[in-house]
Structure to design on (223 residues):
């Protein structure tokens, strides 16, 4: 495996590449780095020439940049250059916002707890460190991006696969988790109605499925 850097607009992007077979680019999620994809990338390298990288904002400031929501990767400017697009528990055109005014106090407390846990694990290569307020602001911004994402799907000219978690917001039996999980599934159902050709796979997992279910995801991607 080769590790190198790309330089663009005064930003250095770490890149890893290795394996053999069809080329495959792996893009990390908003609050993670390419290290989060390490196990999955190693599995995929058996059949693919796999490239992983850190997002520009992650590499330069270790914080997500404004505007880089879950639909940022659904680019329409290069038709015919991508053979297949596989999205893992993201870019979901949910019919309702994840956050309402009533949810904000609970969400703030939850995000503060997560930020404190991340702070205790400072130095991890897998995750971008955000404070509670930063994480809350980011999720509000993501909701805005999701409200327009369905139109982007209509313009994508390659096959699309979705690998989704059944319990995106966790296994909680009531309240916010139940509503978020229901909204998550409804978003995929809405998408499939608009694009019946999209192949969808569901894994019994939460939003960390890339880390916890790498072998299952690798099998689905490699089909």
């Amino acid at each position: 495996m080769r590790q190198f850097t790309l330089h663009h607009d005064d930003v250095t992007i770490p890149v890893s590449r290795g394996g053999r077979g069809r080329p495959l680019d792996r893009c990390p999620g908003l609050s993670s780095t390419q290290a989060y994809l390490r196990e999955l990338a190693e599995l995929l390298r058996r059949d693919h020439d796999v490239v992983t990288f850190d997002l520009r904002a992650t590499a330069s400031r270790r914080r997500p940049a404004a505007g880089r929501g879950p639909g940022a990767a659904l680019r329409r400017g290069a038709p015919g250059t991508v053979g297949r697009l596989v999205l893992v528990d993201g870019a979901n055109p949910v019919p309702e916002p994840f956050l309402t005014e009533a949810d904000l106090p609970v969400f703030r407390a939850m995000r503060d707890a997560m930020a404190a846990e991340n702070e205790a694990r400072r130095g991890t290569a897998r995750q971008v460190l955000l404070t509670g307020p930063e994480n809350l602001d980011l999720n509000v911004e993501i909701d805005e991006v999701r409200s327009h994402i369905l139109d982007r799907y209509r313009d994508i000219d390659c096959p699309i696969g979705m690998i989704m978690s059944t319990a995106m917001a966790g296994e909680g039996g009531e309240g916010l988790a139940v509503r978020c999980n229901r909204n998550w599934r409804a978003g995929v159902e809405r998408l499939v109605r608009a694009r019946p050709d999209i192949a969808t796979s569901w894994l019994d997992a939460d939003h960390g499925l890339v880390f916890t279910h790498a072998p299952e995801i690798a099998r689905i991607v490699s089909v």
Summary: The first strand starts at residue 2 and ends at 8.
